[in-house]
Amino acid sequence: MQVDAGKAGWLDQFLLLGLPGPAPSLASDACAPACSVNAMVFLQNRYPEIYGLSLAGGNQAAWAETAALLAGPGYFNTIPGIGTEPVRNLPLGLRSFLSGRGHGGTLVRGVLPQGNPGGLVNELVGELPDGYEQGVPSFDDLGEALLAGSPVIVSILYEGRTQGHNVLVTGVEWTGSGTAAVGTMTFIDPLDPANYGADGFPVSMKLTTGNVTILPSLSLGNPADGVVDTLTNVMALDYLQYQGQLPYQPGNYSQTVALIGGMTFLQVPEPSAAGLAALAGAAWFLFRRRGRGNRIR
């Protein structure tokens, strides 16, 4: 299942290095704002009659300025050296931004884990935002959101580390079910979202593909402090991740394993045929989630 990836944005988070003010210091930690801009570009291109260019503008420079705005106070509150934390700042910031642009009716929904106070999951997420289901995403969750017409922002946690990242999912394919499910995920990584020109700067969109498996049970936290969160049926993403900045450095990649800890998707509720279909998909997604056991224990 996939969306039309060609409609999404392909902002490189390191384009913020060229902006004035605090933006350069945020570039290394601007994955969430950059992913959100790339998702909003998708909405602009899929529903031009609704959004025009009101969400993110129409070129890379405007996209970077929008990401810098999203990273600031009042939206994501992205912090240099830390990032967008807690993760709930992403949906709350998106809702505030969309409302300010006259599109407060655009739905921001998803799935996020919520753990013990002081535990690693709680640090990444905090209080669960309204409209979110508690748990970790599954292949079905991602597939249904894509089927409803949304690109999906997923929050990932690097294996063995406390740092995370965000990528914009445009497609997912899998076989099997439950813990036996395996598949692939196609996404736009704001660390490496483009093909680059001779000057090492973005010229066109590039998609990344990673392999996905399911971990039946995973404990996160610090056992020495007695605070451990246990997740079940966690998706593990394995892909070749770019390790450099801009200008682009060919060959600077490392194999990376990351745990998918949450997802956020945007849906358009306007009463058009496409909008109603998307809304129906989102409603079914949330209804189906309530009957499942994919939760933190």
Describe the structure in your own words.
By secondary structure, this protein is of the alpha+beta class. The protein has one domain. It is 27% helix and 30% strand. The chain has 8 helices and 10 strands. The strands form 2 sheets. The chain has a 6-stranded antiparallel barrel. It has a two-stranded antiparallel ribbon with strand order 6-7. The longest helix has 18 residues. 47% of the residues are buried.
Give the tally of β-strands.
10
Overall, the morphology is globular
Overall mean confidence score, pLDDT: 89
Helix content: 25-40%
Order of helices and strands, N to C?
A: HHHHHEHEHEEEEEEEEH
- Report strand order across the widest sheet: 3-4-5-8-9-10
User: What is the count of helical runs?
Assistant: 8
Q: How many domains in all?
A: 1
